[in-house]
Amino acid sequence: RSEATLLGLAEALATQSKVASLERDEKETLRLGDEALEVLRPLSGAAQPSRPVMRLHAEMLESRGFNLHRREPELAIRDLQQAREIYNKLGAQDLSNIAAAASYASSGYWLGLAYGVTGRRQEAQSVFEEALAMANRVIDVMPGHTTALYAKGNIAARLAGFEVDELRMDRALALVQEGRQTWEGLLKIAPTNAVYRNNYGVTRGEVANTLWQLGRFNESRRERRELVDMGAKPGDVSAFYMSNMMVWATDLAAEEAELGNRAGAAEALARHVRFKEAYLKMAPPSVETDWWVYFAEANKVRVALANGDPREGARIGAAALAKAEKLAATRKSHEVSKDILRYRINLGSALAQERLGDHAAAEASARGALEAWGRLPRGSDIRDERDKAWLNAMMARAMARQGRQGEAATLIAPVIDFHRKQYARRHDNRWQHFLFAEALYTGALSDPARRRVMLAEATAVLAGLPPTMNGWKPLAQLREDIAAIR
After folding, report:
1. Do the Cβ atoms of 415 and 370 come closer than 8 Å?
2. Are 406 and 443 in contact (CB under 8 A)?
3. For residue 2, pLDDT beyond 90
4. What pLDDT does residue 381 have?
5. How far, in Å, CA of 241 to CA of 243, rounded?
6. Backbone angles phi, psi at 205, to 5 degrees
7. pLDDT at residue number 283
8. What is the pLDDT of residues 76-130, one digit of tens each?
9. Distance in angstroms (rounded) separating the CA atoms of residues 308 and 377
10. How many CB atoms lie within 10 A of CB 273?
11. Of 241, 163, 162, 164, nearest to 199 (Cα)?
12. Residue 321: closest CA among 299, 300, 349
């Protein structure tokens, strides 16, 4: 067969693989991608492949790296590094080939994600920074270059996560806002593009998360409302997009409930149902399809708890966990996915059981969440430690309320030390401030001799929170809990 014939066949298979990816058909995505690479092998393996062959080979390696970066990150790293080597040979570094330079930046984004999955945090940050610099170089030369803008929009949000780790919240917010503006620009170029719409939504979700951690709850809620409103707008949609919409609607429902808007929470949950119905019509039956459904269920525990119905929250959590445990795990990535569900669902269940006064069950759920957390790939040092500290505080409260103050005091002491060190850095991550006060309250339950001192410190921390956090139910509940044991 001629080069033109093989190139055409490989390109057709690669296109079919991308379509399958948008429909969340992981098996077919990988099969078609591997078949495309195999078709191209006689050409790509030549001593001096043509530039069109090199270009397609790099694109397919990048595509496979994207599809493997979660389930097989080491293989993804290999593919993405090879793709970037080819882009450099095509003229990426000196910008003699603008398309190759832009693809070098976009493949750097996926490479950074793969490094993150393996816990190689410094390498991930370094690659992200290099790739963003390359994207900006391309944009300086060609401001409307969509591939470079795509890379910049994704990378800016990821780098914001590193700023959050260092508790530099203003810098994190600036980066996610920069990413949001980039996606808005791309949507002006292609308003109905399904990938752009999805990534714009992901970035707006990160804007909301950052505002939430800053204690700017009404701004965060407004972002989420506008994000969920996007799901009703016309345009190209995919199973990938609808799976995210399904989760984003429950994120909004939880925030509405915690801010006292029961009607808003109910409307968000109704939208969740509509998005879920659309998603299940699009997505093929699979472990991945069910996983997204159960992932969204975890937020419903939070909604019930905020609505003052912890019994319903515990029921939802138990039902969701039972379904999650039945997911067939045929490979390592499935086990990781199940542990994500175990962590999220058990965490919510522990909080609901605590409010019910079933402290033995709360301890068991918190322990289950911690065990699942311990098996997950590590990413951010501070965020990982914060999550671990949160779960240990839940367990310590449950122990103290079962009369095991000694165990509780031993468990909560390093949690308080961790939060005190972070608090001393004079940052504006209000979520961490709240968790510090909650840990001090837990310490007061665990050590009656130091109760007054710890409660005074917890009260002082809460007094420093901004007025924008008033009306948040978990904060009001913590203040009530502190007052109850003074």
Report:
1. no
2. no
3. no
4. 66
5. 6
6. -65, -40
7. 85
8. 999 999 999 999 999 999 999 999 999 999 999 999 999 988 888 889 999 999 9
9. 34
10. 11
11. 241
12. 349
Secondary structure letter of residue 378 according to DSSP: P
Q: How many Cα neighbours within 13 Å face the side chain of 49?
A: 22
Query: Distance of CA 103 to CAs 22, 67, 196, 383, 453, Å?
Result: 20, 16, 16, 31, 57
What are phi and psi for residue 377, nearest 5 degrees? -60, 140
pLDDT at residue number 71: 80
pTM for the model: 0.84
**What three-state secondary structure class fits 370?**
helix
> How far apart (Å, rounded) are the C-alpha atoms in residues 272 and 296?
9
Q: Which range has the worst mean pLDDT, 44-53, 179-188, 252-261, 296-305?
A: 44-53
Mean pLDDT of 204-226: 95
Q: Write out the two tokens for 277.
A: 């119905």
Residue type, 422: Q
136-145, 238-247, 469-478: the lowest-pLDDT one: 238-247
Cα–Cα distance between 439 and 442 in angstroms, integer? 5
Q: How many C-beta neighbours within 10 Å does residue 340 have? A: 19
Mean pLDDT score, 14-33: 81
Beta strands in 165-294 (DSSP E): none
Residue 383 to residue 351: CA distance in whole angstroms: 20
Residue 94: partners with Cβ closer than 8 Å, 6 or more residues away: none
Number of Cα atoms under 13 Å in the Cβ half of residue 131: 34
d(CA 428, CA 245): 29
Q: Is the dihedral of CA 449, 450, 456, 458 positive or negative?
A: negative
Residue 25, pLDDT above cutoff 90 = no
Tokens representing 134?
Answer: 């390359």
DSSP string, 23-75: TT-HHHHHHHHHHHHHHHHHHHTSSS--HHHHHHHHHHHHHHHHHHTTTSHHH
Token digits of residue 155:
């990378």
**Which residue type does 451 have?**
R
State yes or no: pLDDT of 54 exceeds 70.
yes
d(CA 157, CA 209): 11
